[in-house]
Specification:
Layout lengths: L2 E2 L10 E4 L15 E4 L3 E2 H9 L8 E6 L3 H12 L5 H21 L3 E9 L14 E8 L4 E4 L10 E2 L6 E4 L11 E4 L10 E8 L11 E2 L1
Parallel strand pairs: 2-3
Antiparallel strand pairs: 1-4, 3-10, 5-6, 5-13, 6-12, 7-10, 7-12, 8-9, 8-11
Helix pairs in contact: 2-3
Length: about 220
């Protein structure tokens, strides 16, 4: 199989670049504000997802328990009508794997998942999420941008996470002070014709009853 290789030549201070998803445990170490898994993406998958009609991209928000995670994601892909393709199955397997890894990292059994299809300048302002931690993986289009700022203004040096590389980053509710100064945003794409597909995973500490609260967006 042929792979696309993307290189992170430099990363901001406090951002760990990993070659193995098992190393995401480094994220919990003091002084690490985020971790990026620099990995190889199958070229045939990337070509397929980049050319897939926007109407077939999975778009949903869902809360789920880890024990029904695969069923939940498969139900989303059934709506998108791509689940039976080889590449669609790869995407299902990959998102399940990333969510499971995040669940283990955070020590939780309940997750909130988002598949966002973005065609405009959504969340283009640099910010910190109001969560304890979040996993973000951009499967199509430019990846999340990030940088360090000591006063909340736009970072002077901006980095982009490679397409297909998962990033785990701390939010405002992370228990360890002080704030890292790491900010991130969705890259501005208005007027470029680009469509991004972004997968987001948050942990949920509170109980809920509906494991299939799927809503198309």
């Amino acid at each position: 199989m042929t792979y696309v290789r993307e290189t992170i030549e430099n990363a901001a201070v406090g951002v760990a670049v990993l070659s193995d998803p098992q190393a995401f445990g480094l994220f919990t170490k003091q002084g690490i504000a985020a971790a990026i898994w620099q990995r190889e993406v199958p070229e045939d998958f990337q070509t397929w997802i980049d050319k897939l009609p926007v109407t077939n991209l999975p778009a949903a928000r869902v809360t789920t328990r880890i024990d029904v995670l695969r069923d939940t994601i498969e139900s989303i892909f059934a709506d998108a009508e791509i689940a039976q393709t080889v590449q669609g199955k790869y995407l299902i397997d990959d998102t399940v794997m990333l969510a499971q890894n995040f669940s283990t990292l955070m020590g939780v059994q309940q997750l909130r998942l988002r598949f966002d299809v973005i065609e405009n300048d959504a969340c283009r302002k640099f910010h910190i999420d109001a969560v304890s931690a979040r996993l973000i993986c951009t499967y199509r289009g430019t990846g999340t941008q990030y940088g360090i700022s000591t006063d909340g203004s736009e970072p002077k040096r901006i980095f982009s996470v490679p397409t297909g590389a998962p990033m785990v980053l701390r939010g405002t509710k992370w228990p360890e002070p002080p704030a890292s100064g790491l900010l991130h945003r969705s890259p501005p794409i208005e007027g470029t014709g680009m469509t991004r597909l972004v997968f987001v995973v948050d942990s949920i500490a509170d109980d809920f009853d509906d494991a299939f609260d799927v809503r198309r967006i």
